[in-house]
Design brief:
The protein is mainly beta and about 140 residues long. About 5% of the residues lie in helices and about 55% in strands. The protein has two helices and ten strands; from the N terminus they run βββββαβαββββ. The strands form two sheets. Strands 1-6-7-8-5 form a five-stranded antiparallel sheet, with no helix packed on it. A hairpin with a 2-residue loop joins strand 2 and strand 3. The longest helix is centred in the middle third of the chain and has 4 residues.
Length: about 140
């Protein structure tokens, strides 16, 4: 099944290196920081927080080839809401309790590590640099 997705959040420069810089999972949810570029010489940090996480997988971008083949995941965004064809449509989930929970699926795309996240909520996103912090 082909992946259908919708970009979420701001656009960034994907002709520069990006990566999941930091990752933690605990009682408050899944917290990750993506290092991204807004200009050729300016990096920003995207702080992404999922409060109610059901599952996640972190892999190198080569291992998410099914996602990168989708024309819907071809914009300058780092966050995508997966509408169909992703992890939730995998054969191993058909008999699981996840089919009853109806979680949202998210894909975090960088030029290095990537993540697929199942959560019951949309992520909270903040962007910061060495100079400022802004919330969305």
């Amino acid at each position: 099944m082909k992946i259908k997705a919708k970009p979420y959040g701001k656009k960034y420069r994907l002709d520069q290196q990006s990566d999941i810089f930091e990752l933690s999972f605990g009682a408050t949810g899944l917290h990750l920081i993506v290092i991204a570029a807004t200009t050729m010489f300016t990096d920003v940090y995207i702080d992404i927080h999922f409060a109610d996480v059901i599952g996640f997988q972190y892999l190198d971008e080569r291992d998410f080839d099914k996602f990168f083949e989708s024309k819907d995941i071809n914009s300058n965004h780092h966050i995508y809401k997966i509408l169909s064809g992703g992890w939730l449509n995998g054969d191993f989930l058909k008999e699981s309790i996840l089919s009853e929970l109806e979680p949202l699926e998210w894909f975090i795309k960088t030029t290095n590590g990537c993540m697929s996240v199942l959560s019951s909520d949309e992520p909270i996103i903040r962007e910061f640099s060495n100079m400022s912090i802004s919330s969305k």
